[in-house]
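Hey, I was hoping to borrow your eyes for a little while. I've been puzzling over a protein and I'd love to understand its fold better. The fold is given in discrete form, as structure tokens running alongside the sequence. I'd be grateful if you could look everything over and explain what you see. No rush at all, and the record is pasted right below.
>
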Amino acid sequence: MTAPRVVVLAGGVGGSKFTLGVREALARRGAPEATVVANTGDDLWLSGVRLQPDVDSLVYALAGVNDTQRGWGRSGDTERVNAELQAWGAGWPWFTLGDLDLGTHLARTGWLREGQTPTQVIERMSQRWPLGVHLLPMTDAEVDTQVELRDGSSIHFQEWWTRHRAALEPAAFHNPGIRDARPAPGVVEAIAAADVVLIAPSNPVVSIGPILAVPGIRDALRSAPGSVVGVSPIIGGRVVRGMADVCLAAIGVETSAAAVGAHYGARTGDGILDAWLLAEEDAGSADEVAEHSIRPVVTPLWMTDAVASGAIVDAALAAAFDAAGW
């Protein structure tokens, strides 16, 4: 197999683990660094600073400074400033900001207020920690996610996710302003130049969904000369992490690997996929995936470490080469 040019769409902890595997797999091949397009739909302003949870999860994981026990934030972090904020009645008592993590948010906010774009801020962050990938936000626009509840009210995604643990039944998810947003500089160009585009096993609704909703990105995927391969975030009919099943139910999609593949759809129709990786536990639904004109690939999908994640990427790259007839 040649050394492919790869683009990854990713968000959250699942996206971070998968991206570590992408970096490992491409390094073995001597391939160019992948371009990783990060979800920024769950960003927010809190206590006067700009937070980018999915971006930071990717940055911390790639830099090797992430808290692997909690699954978010910096390893070895403390919470003195957060306690002081709570004493002042500032911020959200159920949304913890670590001291080291807050340093990132303060730096980001300062640069944004100086006029830099999120793209430029991430580039600056990458100078401190060589990440081994080219990380881009999906857009430089602010398109934070609002959760519309069944009673007609709306709350920020982070309040619904972190405070209520998705226990409040959602009616819909919205990204105000996204119709006027544009892909961040370099995103569409990277997709157009890629041999392979990989859809990480991130939440299809609130991590990958906002990326695809940025005008121009879905069209770029559909017209991409390379193959588009997705990795199922569902194993054995269950979500691997988080509350993606609640999100899927809100948009009328069954919590199954085949249903999520069908949700993304085939490029031969009006979707974005050429191939779809299924876990061994879901091998019985391969024919169902094929019925949607998507090539099913059955392979182990548990991302226990970077080596296991790299093996998943190997399978995805092989599927991409087969789909392209290379």
Summary: Residues 33 and 133 are 5 Å apart (CA to CA).
